[in-house]
Amino acid sequence: MRVVLKECLWESMGDELLVLFDPREVITLGDPDGQVAALFAELRREPRTPEALATALSVPEADMTAALEVLDSLGLVEYEEQRSLGEPGPDERHFSNLAFFGSYSGLDRPRAEFVRRLRDAHVLVLGVGGGGSSLVQSLAGLGVGRLTLVDRDDVEPRNFARQFLYRHADIGRSKVERAAEWVREYDPSIEVRGVDRWITGPEDLKDLVDGVDLVAGGLDGHPEAHLWVNEAAVRARVPLVVGGMTRSQVMYYSVDPGNSACVRCDWENRAGLGDASAEGFFERNRGALTVTNTLIGPLAMQIGSLVAYEALRYLTRFEPPVAAGAYVKLDLRDGLQPERQPFATTPDCPVCGT
Fold this sequence. Notes:
It is a single chain. This protein folds into 2 domains: 3-82, Alpha-Beta Complex (Outer Surface Protein A, domain 3); 120-342, NAD(P)-binding Rossmann-like Domain (Rossmann fold), CATH 3.40.50.720. The protein starts with a strand and ends in a 12-residue tail after the last strand. It is an alpha/beta fold. It has an 8-stranded mixed β-sheet with strand order 8-7-6-9-10-11-12-13, sandwiched between helices. The longest helix is centred in the C-terminal third of the chain and has 20 residues, at 297-316. It contains 13 helices and 13 strands. It holds the Pfam family ThiF. InterPro entries: ThiF/MoeB/HesA (IPR045886), ThiF_NAD_FAD-bd (IPR000594), Ubiquitin-activating_enz (IPR035985). Residues 112-351 form the THIF-type NAD/FAD binding fold domain.
């Protein structure tokens, strides 16, 4: 296959070649004889096979292979044939997605393969309200091929400050029904199913997690709903990504079954805190505290996008998940600065047994 140089700039300076690929940094390569600059020029002229490049530059093929391996390790080259899906319609539809993955692709990590993984993926979305409505839009934009949406609420006027899937004409309609319609209108190639259902325990999730690649979103209405979802996902060995908000924090977390601690681990550990401590008081009462929903549009979109981006990590593995077994909290009082807080682990956790 033909190797192509990614979009970058370079300049020779003394015995070095300076390369600018990511505007955050300059890559410096030793090039006393100008051979690296010549290789860059050949690659820029047109994509070539390693053999053709070796011939053009009069170097042994083994040396050319080694040079390309170095450029690949720096994220500067990929195969021309793997830059697109090879279908005009999907390539146009996923133009930006393909460009994004170009920053992470390589000779053995085709950008097109990342997009194919998304198109083949099935995501279960729990809740299509605040953060969930933005999550649905983000997943659809990524081109996730199959979505199962779960909710039981109807559209109300109070939703319009933060739920942009819905219109005033939808008031009184099932949210999940309208959300599924939105997905079909947005991209008919996405297979979507709406499930209008109350979730009252992990048993209500068993049939929903069967065959999915990831569970995302979150449930409210019961202080232990997050434990039900955690149990269902871990039992099915399906990654889980959840987001939400308190009065002053935006937060998301994820569980990578078999690789990270789970929500129950953290709950079991914190449940044993001494009653006489301030932290114990907090843990006993945080689930019982009634707070008027303070979620507004910009923060709902923040939650949806953070959950979708963590889901993207799991579905494509373009990079490792950053919130596996941890809360990532963004403090509104500190300019949304993120802080990662690992789950407290419980060796004999009844769900994951970490």
